[in-house]
Design goal:
By secondary structure, the chain is α/β, with parallel strands linked by helices. It has one domain: Alpha-Beta Barrel (TIM Barrel), CATH 3.20.20. Helix content is about 20%, strand content about 25%. The longest helix has 14 residues. The chain is globular, with a radius of gyration of 17 Å.
Length: about 210
Amino acid sequence: MTYAVKEMFLTVQGEGGQAGRPAVFCRFAGCNLWSGLERDRASAVCNFCDTEFVGTDGVGGGKFKSPADLAQAVASYWPGGGRPLVVCTGGEPLLQLDAELIDAFKKQGFEIAVESNGTIAAPDGIDWLTVSPKAAAELVQTTGDELKLVYPQPGVDPARFEHLDFKRFSLQPMDGTNQMKNAQTAFEYCLAHPKWSLSLQTHKWIGAP
């Protein structure tokens, strides 16, 4: 299998339950809920995405012909020491992340975190699975480490997900022109419903990728 990667970089995880942890981000190209083209955004199942995931032309991006090649490329970004972490994101990483690639990452010493929209069942071997549901998409992956709901989404009540088997439930304010209003709304919801934690995209505050 050839793996299509939009970009790859070393940063600090800026959101969710592992915020603050250094990680190599491996952003896979492609998504099953939006083409990534602006002309299709209005009709997409997920039309509020804030990420560029089309093509393989980003820094560190490319097409990798084997799991070992991609794992080696990811390892080249890690400075050494600590607890190596790769965050597989997208787009939708589970369109490409498979058992062979998970094994290759493990052989390079990496813990594996995945950020998925939950419409594809996750393979075994993932160390931290974050599922971010989208309102109009069927949720297939109903267990994991963190359910992170972008909030508010029209027609979505967070209580709809509270029965699912996740260790952590996070509300992340929707980005865009109403970001501060959305942050206040999420803040107030978490205070009233303490099952939920507030997840802020701290990397955007400091201009990190």
